[in-house]
Amino acid sequence: MFGVTVRDHMMVAHSFRGEVFGPAQQLHGATFVVDATFRGEALDADGILVDIGRATEVLKAVVGELSYRNLDDDPAFAGTNTTTEVLARHVADRLAEQVAAGAMGAAEHVNGIVVTLHESHVAWASYERSL
Amino acid sequence: MFGVTVRDHMMVAHSFRGEVFGPAQQLHGATFVVDATFRGEALDADGILVDIGRATEVLKAVVGELSYRNLDDDPAFAGTNTTTEVLARHVADRLAEQVAAGAMGAAEHVNGIVVTLHESHVAWASYERSL
Amino acid sequence: MFGVTVRDHMMVAHSFRGEVFGPAQQLHGATFVVDATFRGEALDADGILVDIGRATEVLKAVVGELSYRNLDDDPAFAGTNTTTEVLARHVADRLAEQVAAGAMGAAEHVNGIVVTLHESHVAWASYERSL
Amino acid sequence: MFGVTVRDHMMVAHSFRGEVFGPAQQLHGATFVVDATFRGEALDADGILVDIGRATEVLKAVVGELSYRNLDDDPAFAGTNTTTEVLARHVADRLAEQVAAGAMGAAEHVNGIVVTLHESHVAWASYERSL
Amino acid sequence: MFGVTVRDHMMVAHSFRGEVFGPAQQLHGATFVVDATFRGEALDADGILVDIGRATEVLKAVVGELSYRNLDDDPAFAGTNTTTEVLARHVADRLAEQVAAGAMGAAEHVNGIVVTLHESHVAWASYERSL
Amino acid sequence: MFGVTVRDHMMVAHSFRGEVFGPAQQLHGATFVVDATFRGEALDADGILVDIGRATEVLKAVVGELSYRNLDDDPAFAGTNTTTEVLARHVADRLAEQVAAGAMGAAEHVNGIVVTLHESHVAWASYERSL
Questions:
Q1: A with B: how many residue pairs have Cβ under 8 Å apart?
Q2: Neighbours of chain D (3+ CB pairs under 8 A)
Q3: What is the DSSP letter of C108?
Q4: pTM, whole model, 2 decimals?
């Protein structure tokens, strides 16, 4: 099993609904350092699972749609807390769409994606899905 | 599959029995940077797998029981080398007890725990178990 | 010259005024991983420059005043962009007040403070001042 | 499931064939920070999966065979791009040979290896295999 | 005193002349993770020392001139070993030219630059100069 | 001004005398990740300030004298708490002796040393001295 990971980041504002969140119910924000891992069982004829350059560009586009925004105003997340877990799944699902749409080239052997969002040096969350 | 990780650390003294350990047979010590990952297939109604705040508190309590101590004197480890592997399992088992006891709230979807102990910038060990 | 550093973090929302900021003029947010360094020429009788435990508590209190908030609503920053540089200076100044007020004990040899705020894995800013 | 990881690094020159690689078709180089993880279900009588000291030595020897060289001149890689994925597999296979040859002692419970090669702070690749 | 740092990286091949270099006399390579710090005593009216976005672009351009190349073939380094120290100075000098040429905007308060090149997780070199 | 840094680590047991230390008055331990920086204004004819290979060996020897031991039993520290600050100064002084003794070759331009000891991911101390 191979895995290839690229890293980028996004800076967002948001607030959470639910007593469990304590002070995080107030409008606050986060830098999410985002690691996107593409997984697969084999390499292509060039000796790669995915092109790291294209993977970097696709991840940059996906996190760019969220960055420098207040996620409380984003209809895509209406009625949903944009927790680290939810955002990890969102980024993974958007990357899966991009792979399916050919944005990363053939990427014929990619069969899974893992996205990890680091919200600080002491907390992070990830979401793993097949393709 | 979701995963949520929180990080803390502990500082302990200990020694090992067995020629394989070389100079580590002498009384020495370590800082273990501890990463505790909670895993599960779904999120609760708040959009979280576990409350990061409560997970942080529970991990702090578990590593606090070990920290600032000489583990050679701890009856819980009598007859056992407190290697990084053994301590990773110990912390994971204690966290599993805490989850079962409700210390992290409902945490209804948590079905696995991974604990990684970093003993230096060039060596670490982990233990993974189901719940 | 000795230096002792402790690390914590804060999560804030804010927006910037000025064309130079591009998309960061929108309401967004950041996690700032905060490193506070205390400097001095000598150690006290216990062999320390500052008590790392107390330094950790004081830093936690200072960043706690800013965390989980929208800094655009904070009168302390009215008319000022809360850039990484400005926040680094703010934290350093607040820490200096705490040292002067005895919050860190005698700390008799501390004569300088450096605060570094990491806004992502690829950008950070610092402010250094004497006491 | 236990895992034990040791880290080392290697510095190599190489070039890639294939338009997908863009400027990396030119002779260039990389530092690969190499993480080698040994996995297994149980610990031995000493309380370890593998001896971290021996694992460190074996990894050092394996990466030492590649380091400070131009991999374009290495017959072992003739006709193959020495991408991060290919090198991760190469290191994992060499480590598996070493374990089988007894270089790490009994290591009776080791049943899998994961090798991760970090080519920069924003990109890495891994290869996982059973033993 | 303020400092603002941005990080990028470059991947190069090179070899060294001189017995002191041992195996590094052979053609090999390195990833250099490059931290560029801009220093100054005051902030501008926007509350910044430099625009982090522009600093990132300027650093990317400067390291881009060196990346994906064999530095042994670069006339700029004829007769000079491209050690980590030499490359740190080279990048700092090129950044200083860019600041002087206005590539980073007014940057009126910038009076010093520090460049650190990380050649691995266990070795790095820096060069500090005034402007 | 140039700086060259190499990193190693040591694992020790110790205890502290003084109420300020709270639970750290008990026998405990630490991994110290040690960064040794050599500073100087110029490079030698080879284009280096110090040989990174030799610096690595010298640092390894110096931290090796302390590692895998209980520092409470070391006569060199009798009557002194082996705090992170004290150990940083000790390592810096030992490295200065080694440079003076020629252990790192000519190293003619080295005029300062900074040693940083990381006791965890959230606390570190440093000592800086001239040569």
A1: 62
A2: A, B, C, E
A3: T
A4: 0.98
